[in-house]
Amino acid sequence: MLTRYFPLFSVLFVLGAFTLAAESQFEIVDSNEQSVVGTITALDNTQVIVDAQGTSHTIPLEKLSKIQNVLPNPYDGVPVPATGDQHLLRPMPSTQRGANERRLIASLLKNEQTTQKSFPNNVVALELKDGSRLTASSFTVAKNQVVFRLLDQPDDSSLPLNTLSAVRFSVRSLSEVVNPPADWQRLAVPNVEGDRLVVGNPESFDVYAGILNEITAETVSFTVDGEVIPVPRRRAFGLVFHQESSPASAPPLGTLSLWTGTKGMISDIRLNGKELTWQTASGLTVVVPLEMVDEIDFGSKRTASLLDCELVRSEFSLPFDSDIPPTQLHFLQTFYESRTKNSSHEAILDGVVYGRSITLRGKTSLEYILPKPFVSLKAVIGVEDQFRPNVSATFQILANAQVLGTWELRGDSASERIQVNLPQNCRTITFVAEPLSNLPAVLTIAEPKLLE
What we know:
By secondary structure, this protein is mainly beta.
């Protein structure tokens, strides 16, 4: 619960909302739908730091549900969509929002003079294979490379053509970005036969199968049955691109939505001052002012704690030399084994408190059986602060006897946030710690979560 990290705002803080309006204010919502409002001072793949009433608070990312801009979308004339993506229009309120948060948000909304913007009528909506959606003011294709400029951005960006799933031209409103015509939604599905060019308008269009050559500001060059056909771009409604099967990628860190309608399935995120840098799984890197962010959704995927699964095997041994006298060896074995925590406990890594963790001491192997298949496993791995810095070991994760990853962890290095894909129909997961010296390993796996 965020109340653990944030004291309630004082009345003086609420009355000072006018001075805070100069800084972008965001509502931070946790997985229990409790929220707090403050200024984000740091944000990356591991944590968010929020300034509330002059005090800095650090919250691990896995405890977050959403980060929402307090102010409404500045683009006008936007009707509420019938389904999905309502967050593009207004931040969704937290069901557990405190009274002080409600008063602060009300003051900000009442007194902030948000500049209204008209949505351009020639926006290009790009759909990427990783699930991202980009709104662009310009778009061309040449030599299998896409060059575009995101709406409200000063510079061009580029991507390989094979990262695109579909593209629509002359999108006239933010609602059209969010909710494409029903016919287009039925058409824009993975296609293994070739590219498809859609000509016409939302009320009536024709579809041609072929191969895209290039796109300029005036023309779409498309090959149909061996003949190159130049189609005026003003007549092109959109394109659906050829898609081959590709290996599954790791689930995104979260979904970032901008006021302009861009929605990125982010694999990396970092705040530098007032500029936010984020990257999609397709390799696109975007830098935007933090104030342009409407929402960052860290997912409501159904998860289960690995620590709630059945522990079916626990093996422990010492890395000491065999010439140690049996009496001493037995004492050390008993001493360290009694301190090997196979059950859940609270741990502190890099100053962050994790409520459910397991610590592996000595040479340890733990095997869990899963009640049903899951898609991936994520956790934080490292050395607890109390055991630093003189500890080093290798750590492995196996699933169905297949090695999913190997990490070398040291007490003088920061902990790592990991996420690994699980094999299809995976039913067992094994953790293995192997010391790199004659000192027992002391490694901690914090908050191991299974994602459906």
